Amino acid sequence: xxxxxxxxxxxxxxxxxxxxxxxxxxxxxxxxxxxxxxxxxxxxxxxxxxxxxxxxxxxxxxxxxxxxxxxxxxxxxxxxxxxxxxxxxxxxxxxxxxxxxxxxxxxxxxxxxxxxxxxxxxxxxxxxxxxxxxxxxxxxxxxxxxxxxxxxxxxxxxxxxxxx
Length: 164
Prior knowledge:
The protein has 164 residues and is mainly alpha-helical. It contains seven helices and two strands, in the order ααααβαααβ. It has one domain. Helix 3 packs antiparallel against helix 5 and helix 5 packs across helix 6. The longest helix is centred in the first third of the chain and has 23 residues.
């Protein structure tokens, strides 16, 4: 016989709720965030395409050890194009054009490590492993459909995207 008051093996009862912030700040819309990501992707894609035209930068047809240089070169290009804006204003070119800004969850400005290392760097690092990067990218993108509109990279860096 088991004692019904024995809770040693009971499931946890913690309630976790995903709610939108109620601090009066308007979150960036999913459409605006998609538009900003599209603009940023087109900019970096154009730079990447241009680099493939330079001898020594065409990684796709190279053996695997050389191909692992592509994410590193991509991240360096990202830092050159977007790094200064991110550190100074919490915006990429795309976010600036559509009127969005990245801030900490409490509304304070995000520091360089949080933006460049945690928010963007962690995702780029995961993308070195092909299938893991694909799964990370899918989960990251789908999480925006939560009420808080926070993607996985927002959770990792403790940031949110607000309307300016």
